[in-house]
Amino acid sequence: MALMITDECINCDVCEPECPNGAIYQGEEIYQIDPNKCTECVGHFDEPQCQQVCPVDCIPLDPDRVESKEQLMEKFLKLTNQEG
């Protein structure tokens, strides 16, 4: 699954620089995650880095974007130009 940022976001700016895929960006009111770039850090880290640094725990899995670890790895390979 891709991750999402809920409206509990306090715009603290700590998640954006932690995303290795550049999937997090400032939206109109709160930070947003581009689901086409979010791999839950698969391929980079063992755990999603944005979730690790978020002080208000507002970055859950997006139930509308169900993806397996294999699908996330495929996305990682495409984003890093390593697709086979």
Automatic annotation (TrEMBL):
The keyword Iron-sulfur applies. It comes from Azoarcus taiwanensis. One of its GO terms (cellular component) is cytoplasm. GO terms for molecular function: 4 iron, 4 sulfur cluster binding; metal ion binding. PANTHER family: PHOTOSYSTEM I IRON-SULFUR CENTER (PTHR24960:SF79), PHOTOSYSTEM I IRON-SULFUR CENTER-RELATED (PTHR24960). Residues 1-29, 31-64 form the 4Fe-4S ferredoxin-type domain. Keywords: 4Fe-4S, Electron transport, Iron, Iron-sulfur, Metal-binding, Repeat, Transport. This is YfhL family 4Fe-4S dicluster ferredoxin.
